[in-house]
Amino acid sequence: MTLELDLRADAMACLKAAIAAVEPESLTMDFLRQHPECIVNPGRLVIVAIGKAAATMTRGAVHGIRDLRSTHDLTGALIAPTDDVDSLEQWLSAKGLPTSQGLEVFGGGHPMPNLEGVRGARAIHTLAGELEVSDTLLCLISGGGSALMTLPPDAVTLTEMQSTTQTLLQAGANIHQLNSVRKHLDLLKGGRLAQVASPARVVALVLSDVVGDPLDVIASGPVTADRTTYRDAIDTLRQFAVWDIIPAAVRDHLERGNDGNTPESPKPGAACFDRVETHVIGSNRLAADAARATAERRGYATQLLTTCLTGEAREVGHMLASIGQQIVTREEPLSAPACIVAAGETTVSVRGGGVGGRNQEVALGAALALDENPVSESILITSMGTDGIDGPTDAAGAWSTGTTLPRARQLGLDAARALADNDAYPFFRALDDLIITGATGTNVMDIALVLVGTKT
Fold first, then answer.
1. Does residue 250 form part of some domain?
2. Which pick of 85, 199, 224, 451 has the fewest CB atoms within 10 Å?
3. HEC per residue, 250-271
4. Which residue, of 255, 282, 309, is where some domain finishes?
5. The pLDDT of residue 71
6. Are strands 338-344 and 301-309 parallel, antiparallel or unpaired?
7. Model pTM score
């Protein structure tokens, strides 16, 4: 058990280092200080912040702006997770920026959009539409922005948008597929915010939560040319066999768009993007490198497996367990003590009615694989969301070792049944194997680790 406790301590140190490396306030402040040309202009500066890191990116932006220009006339609209609203409003007030005078804060919903997020999106639409050619729109964009900033067209209600989103999530749609639909059910996504803001200058700072950092997918690309079409959105819904069960108003809107009766999202080469510049200031590569460096300092041989980890969560867990077993039995690709780092975002096809998240399913899939091999006693597998939130739970993720299933059986827990019912959360809670960090204020997808120790 001493070895397992050591592995847990080392894994937690690596995960904490990964989160610290992508702290949005510092990333945003440092970027603006190094690139003053982004916010020095003759006209107004308007801030828009959307996503799980909206609050922390806003704080960094205010610090960076104050180094370069006055903030007394600063205006904007910020859509942050509901839990961040009070603290952000208090912070702004303490900095002499009461929300009643300039920067208005809204508490959006995630993963389901809510009415407050619609109000915030409407405020953003209004602000952007008032900009002139000498003005600058500073967009602070992070993961979660697709849900938090939602402005459906008149023909589609918020309830119908929520229903469509929930249906696709339960069907197992990945972020590319989900956002191809979202971008065609919204007045700001898919480059439409840039279209509304034109001819003003638009500067976007992005904290990426999508594998490969595709700008048109992160937060549904509000200021990036959209490469998808109404036809793509329809095909996605048909692919998952949900076209006939989504609300009729959604089908009608998409069909009108496909027939050319509703304007398509702006495409590459459109004039509204002529004055848009985008900078990715944080990604999962920064987090993965920090985790790897921490493991090396703790005496592990390390390897970065990938920053593009995708796939069904339970199957990814099985794969990570097999890597750990190969290190033990063959000393490949490294000799123990070893740490394999992977970053990305898996998906879950919801088949049961349980409670959990993709990172917990990675750990549960790994636990089942580890139980099949007696060499697993020196292996730990963990996966966590860098935002500190895994699915609709208070956990960031979980970890599993060779002792996970033996301990579970002693408590009468059935791991295979839990996985079949997508019920990983109560399984790991009973074992005290959940990773609880609380909301971290950042979001660059997930970090997974394979740690292999030595008995000595």
1. no
2. 199
3. HHHHHHHHHCCCCCCCCCCCCH
4. 282
5. 75
6. parallel
7. 0.88
Instruction: Name the domain count of the chain.
Output: 2
Q: Tell me the pLDDT tens digit for each residue of 114-169.
A: 999 999 999 999 999 999 999 999 999 999 999 999 999 999 999 999 999 999 98
- Tell me, yes or no, whether 276 and 295 share the same domain: no
Tell me the pLDDT tens digit for each residue of 420-429: 999 999 999 9
Helix (H) or strand (E) holding 174: none
Produce one character per residue of 365-374: b if its CB has 16 or more CB atoms within 10 Å, e if not: bbbbbbbebe
3-state secondary structure of 316: helix
Residue 444 has pLDDT above 90, yes or no: yes
The Cα–Cα gap between 455 and 344 comes to: 31
| 202 located within any domain | yes
Provide the terminal-to-terminal Cα distance of the chain, rounded to the nearest Å.
12
- Clarify whether residues 202 and 275 are in a common domain: yes
More confident site: 172 or 369: 369
Classify residue 259: in a domain, yes or no: no
Residue 350 lies in a domain: yes
How far does CA 424 lie from the centroid of its chain? Answer: 20
Tokens (6 digits) for 229: 């079409």
Nearest of 154, 156, 140, 287 to residue 219 by alpha carbon:
140
| Residue 333 sits in the same domain as residue 418 | yes
Distance CA 156, CA 250 (A): 6
User: Taken in order 320, 326, 332, 337, is the CA torsion positive or negative?
Assistant: positive
Domain CATH for 95: 3.40.50.10180
The predicted pLDDT at position 217 comes to 96
- Order of strands, sheet of 45-50, starting from the edge strand that comes earlier in the sequence: 103-108, 75-81, 45-50, 136-142, 201-207, 276-282
Whether the bond into 333 is cis, omega within 30 of 0:
yes
Residue 456 above 70 pLDDT?
Answer: no
Residue at token pair 């704080």: 59
Residues 342 and 405 in one domain: yes
Residue 154, number of CB atoms within 10 A of its CB: 7
> Quick one: 32 and 140 in the same domain?
yes
Q: Which domain holds residue 368?
A: 2-18+285-452
CATH number at residue 386: 3.40.1480.10
Residue with tokens 């970027």: 31
- Check pLDDT > 90 for residue 69: no
214 and 306 share a domain? no
**AA letter at 409:** R
The span from the CA of 79 to the CA of 88, in Å, is: 11
Q: Is 184 helix (H, G, I), strand (E, B) or coil?
A: coil
